Amino acid sequence: MSKQTPEAIQEWIIDQICELTDLEASEIHPEEPFASYGLDSMSTVTLVGDLEEWLGLRLAATLLWDYPTIDALSVYLAELSAD
């Protein structure tokens, strides 16, 4: 696992949301709740699994509910990856 900045994590999450939806990156705002992007439960599980693989961390399935915005999640994950 390598240390990631909140900005790098944010960019990665935005790219993943674009792949999971029909949204463009310009339509995704880090301070908006994940729920506003129309992600279903399967999409959120996929996103958390992909984050685990990319960061080399074990993450809770409830991660997107615990940290409901890209901003909040990226800061949390950057702190985890620094440990």
From TrEMBL:
PROSITE patterns: CARRIER, PHOSPHOPANTETHEINE. Residues 4-81 form the Carrier domain. SMART domains: PKS_PP (SM00823), PKS_PP_betabranch (SM01294). It comes from Tumebacillus flagellatus. The keyword Coiled coil does not apply. Pfam families: PP-binding. Keywords: Phosphopantetheine, Phosphoprotein. InterPro entries: ACP-like_sf, PKS_PP-bd, PP-bd_ACP, Ppantetheine_attach_site. This is Carrier domain-containing protein. It comes from the Bacteria. GO terms for molecular function: phosphopantetheine binding. The keyword Metal-binding does not apply.
